[in-house]
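Ticket 4471: requesting a sanity check on a complex prediction with zinc ion. Repro inputs:
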Amino acid sequence: MATSHPHTHVHVNTPCSPQDVDAFLNEAETLVARQGQRMTKIRRKVLRLLLESPEPAKAYDLLANLDGEGSAKPPTIYRALDFLQDTGLAHKIESLNAYVACGHTRHRHSAVFLICEKCHGAEELHAVATNEALKAETEAAGFHMNRAVVEVRGICRDCAA
Ligand SMILES: [Zn+2]
Ligand SMILES: [Zn+2]
Ligand SMILES: [Zn+2]
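Returned C-alpha cells:
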C-alpha cells in the first residue's frame, strides 16, 4: 500500500479519473460544500490517502499513514470513510474489505470495479449504462434500488499484456 510507493499515483484510465490529487481534492471540497457538509482535515487527509494509494486501501493502512493527524483512532477513520461514501467520493469494495476514491462524481453511476486477480489492482469502470440497466431490471422485479457496487474479477489490461 501507499507506504512503499512514492505519493504520485493517480488513476488515469477513465474519462472521470482524477488527473491531479490537489485539483481533485479542491473539487471534492466544492462538492461537499454543495451538499451542505464540511470537508474536515481528517476527511480530506483520508481522501488524499485513497487517491494516492496504488491499491484499494484497508482501514488499518489508512490509520498507519495518517502521520499522527488529529487523534486518529479506528472510529475516526471509519467515520471519515462513511462520510466519503455518503458523499460519493469513495466506495467500499466488500470482497477486498478495502476502499477506493471515486472520480465519477459528475454523473449518476453504479460502482463497477474491475479487480485484477494477478496484481490486486482495482479500477472503477466508467459504467453509465450499467446503472440504467440495473435500475430497469431491479424495478421490473418490484425492487427499489438505492445503490449498487458490482465487483468483477479477472485479469487487468497491464497483466494481460
Ligand atoms: Zn464511483
Ligand atoms: Zn465516469
Ligand atoms: Zn493486474
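Notes from triage: Helices lie at 21-34, 41-52, 59-64, 74-86, 128-140, 157-160. Leaving this open until the requester confirms.
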